[in-house]
Amino acid sequence: DMYKKLEDNPENAVKLADVFLKDESIDNDKLVKPMLLNVINNRDVDMNTRIAAKLNLFLYYIYEENIKSAENLYGEIKSSLPADINKSFRFAVKYEAPFMLKCLKYLKNDLSF
Predict the structure, then answer these.
(1) How far apart are CA 83 and CA 5, in angstroms?
(2) What are the DSSP calls for 37-89, one per residue?
(3) Rounded to two decimals, what is the model's pTM?
(4) Which residue of 3, 6, 35, 52 shows the fewest CB atoms closer than 10 Å?
């Protein structure tokens, strides 16, 4: 079973979810959220992998145009980001995620630039 194999290697689950988000198959999109939630909710998984899973889930919500869920998850990520987190995660949280939210809101006519 694919999920059992991914449970044993959460880093691969996050990588596969990232691929599924960016491929052209809509069928793969419905697999992304359960894969990422499995990683996020597993307290035995290291913090960096769980943050990567949360950022990918944020992207999933952006792709789904689910502003409310994206905003909520962004707030959770931002408020719980450790001080010693790596630079790429810090950049994604500080600049990329809010920019994506702003663009989506603009496209959905919920915000003006």
Answers:
(1) 32
(2) HHHHT-TTS-HHHHHHHHHHHHHHHHHTT-HHHHHHHHHHHHHH--TT--HHH
(3) 0.85
(4) 3
